[in-house]
Amino acid sequence: MTTSIPKITIPADLLPNDGRFGCGPSKVRPEAVAALASAGLDYLGTSHRQEPVKLMVSRLRNGLAELFALPDGYEIMLGNGGSTVFWDIATFGLIDRRSQHLTFGEFSSKFAQAAAATPFLDDPVVIKSEPGTHPEAIPDSAIDVYAFTHNETSTGVAMPLVRPAGTSADESLVLVDATSAAGGLRFDAAQTDVYYFAPQKCFASDGGLWLAAVSPAAIERIQRIGASGRWIPESLNLVTALDNSRKDQTYNTPALATVFLAVQQVEWFNDNGGLHWAASRCDRSAEIIYSWAEASSYATPFVTDEAKRSHVVATIDLDDSIDANTVSAVLRANGVVDTDSYRKLGRNQIRVALFPAIDPEDVAALTKCVDHVVAQLS
To answer: Cellular component per GO (predicted)?
Structure first.
């Protein structure tokens, strides 16, 4: 049954300049779209194994290495399929025998499920905490991969990235799902061995591509497993991906517009001050929305521990007397889109992307729009 949406008009002076607040696909900057349109005749529709596209892939790899301040020996790899495919890739080419997974929401649990379903691996160790929190890793000599999630997109929880005490990359790799964090949260790359993500969030591009910053230890693991005789489908083979990445290409044809838009965002970051500058935009947006929620009579940050609150995805609970789905529907009818909560979390809340492409002043405008809608519904 379809519920009618209340006919509420938000005054134009309250509306944000850009009303896109989705957690993925995310807002793409108009300047990047214009650049793609300008370059389209020379770039789109050309071979991904020829110089125009290989140069674009090179710009992406080099730009990310600069953005993340990668230590010596680290490389940027890429391939088709996005982060979901990368979980399967990791079960074939990165986990030796047993992995440990920190799960605290929908997406952090999926890699654990993939590892558990892999017949040639030992059962993973899964450490779980309730949504709105994150667990801590437990050093274990039987573990050869620790699987972290930098930012849990479903719940708005971010965790610090620290290699488990007493472990070394020679024995156990730290794999980090950074899909909604990369480009928006600060981190020390030396604390990770595989920092992987897709570009449809902070990098203001489209999905279907995975990228990863990999350490020398991870490269050694990839090559060793690849030579071990383990059966690996070619499209999921990290040795193949590594060989192609070093040639500034992918094993099979990528979406050229996705690569181009990601380059536009990476170079925008680097031209303006790098990761610190990009993360500072997210910090400002987070300060605006959490301060608003804390001062509100009807809104509350879902994540109670300030240290665990994400600065790229905010989850805000609304009082039970106010239907969050109705609020989001009214916002959408007024051109302010994708503030819906994550469906499987099942809470009466709004979820708002705070990615670098989103102007903090638009986040401030969003809070005023929500106040107006709630006042009209009361």
So the answer is: peroxisome
- Least confident window among 55-64, 87-96, 339-348: 339-348
d(CA 149, CA 147): 7
Q: Among 272, 303, 328, identify where a domain stops.
A: 272
Residue 271 CB contacts under 8 Å (≥ 6 apart), including other chains: none
Classify residue 7: in a domain, yes or no: no
133 close to 315: Cβ distance less than 8 angstroms: no
318 vs 45: CA distance, rounded Å: 47
CB atoms within 10 A of CB 9: 10
Length of the chain: 378
| Residues sharing a CB contact under 8 Å with residue 338, sequence separation 6 or more, in sequence order | 20, 21, 22, 23, 332, 353
Number of domains in the chain: 2
Q: Report, in this order, helix, strand and coil percent for the chain, each rounded to 5.
A: 40, 15, 45
Residue 169, pLDDT > 80, answer yes
Tell me the C-alpha distance between 33 and 258, whole Å.
11
Cα 55 from Cα 33, distance rounded (Å): 19
Helix spans in 215-301 (H): 216-226, 238-245, 256-272, 275-295
Unique residue bearing structure tokens 């809340």:
349
Mean of pLDDT over the chain: 96
Give me the mean pLDDT over the 58-68 stretch.
98
